[in-house]
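Duplicate of #3305? Posting structure anyway:
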């Protein structure tokens, strides 16, 4: 059986995950990638999405992440995220409310205020991913 790999997910506020994993799937900015023990070292930026990993007991775990970087080493994956939440810590009602607010902002004509439009799109994307992850429970 292959060795497990250490997974650490941290934000500026706290450590979200410190666990051993059989495999780690990460939403990289150029696409999702998987890391097993012995992986070639590399670093990449993150996109908003879900980290999916199988813990050392074989149970699937999910973590919401938004923004940041990932470093993969042969024995460790470190995710430095702007924000991150374990699946069980996501409040689906709060995420749905955030999604509705973002959709409402996008429905308004804000062509001259592109920054607000971009922020609303990013908020909508984060809310949708949180809702999808919370539905995996």
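Output from current build:
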């Amino acid at each position: 059986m292959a060795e497990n790999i250490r997974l650490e997910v941290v934000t500026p506020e706290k450590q979200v995950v410190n666990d051993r994993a059989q495999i780690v799937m990460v939403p990289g900015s150029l696409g999702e990638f998987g890391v097993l023990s012995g992986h070639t070292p590399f670093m990449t930026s993150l996109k908003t999405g879900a980290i999916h990993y199988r813990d050392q007991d074989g149970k699937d775990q999910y973590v919401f992440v938004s923004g940041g970087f990932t470093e993969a080493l042969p024995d460790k994956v470190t995710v430095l995220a702007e924000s991150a939440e374990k699946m069980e810590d996501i409040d689906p009602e709060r995420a749905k409310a955030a999604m509705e607010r973002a959709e409402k902002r996008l429905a308004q004509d804000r062509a001259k205020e592109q920054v607000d439009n971009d922020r609303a799109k990013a908020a909508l994307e984060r809310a949708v991913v949180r809702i999808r992850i919370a539905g995996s429970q």
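Confirmed duplicate; merging threads. The two ends are 28 Å apart (CA to CA). The longest helix spans residues 114-134.
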